[in-house]
Amino acid sequence: MRYKIETERENLFDVNMVIAMRVRLEGEVIFEKLEKAFYGAVAAYEILNSKVIIEDDGNAYYVDCKEPLSSFSKSELSFEELINANEKVRFKIENGEYIRGFLSPDGLVFLMHHMGGDGKSLLYFIETFMNVLAGEEVQKVAFENLPVSALPKDSELSRPYKLFVKLWNKRWAKQKRVFTYADLDKAYRDFWKDHKTKTVVDEYSADTLKELLSKSKEAGCTLTSYLVALWIKDMQYKADVGFAVDGRLTENRSMGNFATGIHIDYKYNSKLSVGKNAVMINRLMKKKISDPKAKYIVINFIGSIDPSLIDTLSLEAAGVYHTRFTGMFADIMNYGPNVKKKDLSISNLMRADIRTDYGDYRIKDIAFVPPVVSYGENIIGIITVNDTMIVTRHVYE
User: Fold this and answer.
1) What pLDDT score was predicted for residue 300?
2) Residues of the chain whose pLDDT is less than 50?
3) Is residue 369 a contact partner of residue 345, using CB atoms and an 8 Å limit?
């Protein structure tokens, strides 16, 4: 295999690109069976049997890896402690390390580097893991990603954006530097010396979820919009809210990075009810998602800028690389240290797109924690399983 990394490039040099999930099971849990299921699931996915190489010209590729380093082990650490312990230890994606699995006192914990896939991808991995655990036969899953050439024709960058891309690529070519994993190692060492994240997990019971769904339905909006209205209600300014969006073009269940994003600006109107504010938020979201240009602009843009210039965004945000030129670019892209970050960055996996019963095992619930992206202030993860909605908030302490 050899797949060029384009639209997922911004995840390559970010020092905090790990998606976390905690799975609580019903059924007898035996470590040896879990370990076997983990490696069986890893073997099923082409992307998890690859590694990421960076070539001399700055282009990066997924290529075959004969002995991938994804691993499964026991731990006495809690879910949050595992996140904190592992966020400081770089995933060796150049050796095929995309997932670390743990049997912990809190349940099964899976930590996946975003280069291994998005939130839905990790759900599909867990589904395959559970299938193997239940003794079911699983099929090999081919790699899929979302190159610029595959994006809808009507999502092409507008002329002003194309001119912007051309100008910045031309200016970067005069001073271009190709970054390596040694640069990423240094970024991890320097950044995590004085940084730590905090994860808050809130569980919503079936009754509470039913009430929220009833209120959002009565208002005529989505649950996500209603939750956003509640969260920004006390903000005295226009909130900048980002939403992760599934960019898959087909109903595939492969692992890969298909995440794109939209954002809206909205000031809560205290003269209106929560429901009416939620309807306004919902309209703004729907307008962006239904417009291919708005829906795919993030990954279209990322895939059009010189890959090494994209790398500088993460390195500037981590405070380990700076030039006047790359600093200006980071500010424009909202990665700069002194620019205002998004107030909320929300990833809602909705009702989990996997079944919950697997032979003698049943998934009780799942908690989903997205990475603290460099352009976000409060990172929110939402997932619903068996009528239990779990909302997490992931921030820097």
Assistant:
1) 95
2) none
3) no
